[in-house]
Amino acid sequence: MRARVGQRVPVVVQSRGRRRTGARVLWVCAETVVTCGVVVLLLVVHQLWWTNQQARAEALQQVRVLEREWDISPPAPTSPTAPVTGTGSSAGSGAVSGADAGGSSPSGAPSDGATRRPAPDAAPGRSDPAPSDAFAVLRIPRLGLTVPVAQGISKRSVLDKGYVGHYPGTAAPGRTGNFALAGHRNTHGEPFRYINRLAEGDVISVRTRGATYTYRVDQILPRTAPRDVGVVRAVPRSIVKPSYGYDAPGAYLTLTTCTPEFSSAYRLVVWAKLVS
């Protein structure tokens, strides 16, 4: 059938502009996804690698400074001192929640201004180390670990610097009671990453200005709740798992950190006893 003269025949024309617009949108979306992926990767590298390098370098430098000072400066005589309190939050730090400053200390002693025992390793002309000041060096030969110990369990001023933090209200190194410490297991130097590898009988030493104290690992609590404050009391015993811990006073060392790795859901606890 022939078309009549003068009758219009419809013609379909493909629009190149629409194709170009669609391709441009897809390209922009792909670039956005790639950029976001790179940013996330950089954040992961920063958190898992760079913070470790930076914190470890700072911590080792602090160890050198402390030991150089101790080698040239004799111990100071003891004198009554004011209490030391912790600073900042310990959430996600490997510390036991509720065991920082404020209210009663983990040992049951008041933390509101009561006088404490003299500090045997205070620097000349000063009282106990201020919060965040390093005052001891912890060594765990089995793990190849050497790290400074500072007052308090603040993430910002202590733990994130790659240091190990001393729970406020707990005993001094070498003294009767519980010398309780917290440290990161992942990121920021992760000093306590491998304390799960410790076994009964392993040696841990704590050097201060005045002496070096040797502890021997005695018990390990693989997992407990973050608020199990019993593990850092003067006579440590878990209030979540009472079969772990002690019944009699002694000179104890407690190490606490997060578990499992890359999580702050629970706490891993290692106890050691003073042997010399």
Q: Would you give an account of this structure?
A:
By secondary structure, the chain is of the alpha+beta class. It has a single domain, classed as Sortase (Sortase, Chain: A), CATH 2.40.260.10. It contains one helix and eight strands; from the N terminus they run αββββββββ. Strands 1-2-3-4-7-8-6-5 form an eight-stranded mixed barrel. A hairpin with a 6-residue loop joins β7 (251-259) and β8. The chain is elongated and about 115 Å long. Mean pLDDT is 80; it is low at 79-88 and 101-127.
Topology at a glance:
Elements lengths: L15 H57 L61 E7 L4 E7 L12 E3 L10 E6 L20 E5 L4 E13 L26 E9 L6 E9 L2
Uncertain ranges: 79-88, 101-127
Return the structural class.
alpha+beta
CATH-defined architecture: Beta Barrel
Strand order of the largest sheet: 1-2-3-4-7-8-6-5
Secondary structure: number of strands? 8
Q: What is the fold-level CATH name, i.e. the topology?
A: Sortase, Chain: A
Order of helices and strands: HEEEEEEEE
Task: Sum this structure up briefly.
By secondary structure, the protein is an alpha+beta fold.
Keyword list:
276 residues, alpha+beta, Sortase, Chain: A, eight-stranded mixed barrel, 1 helix, 21% strand
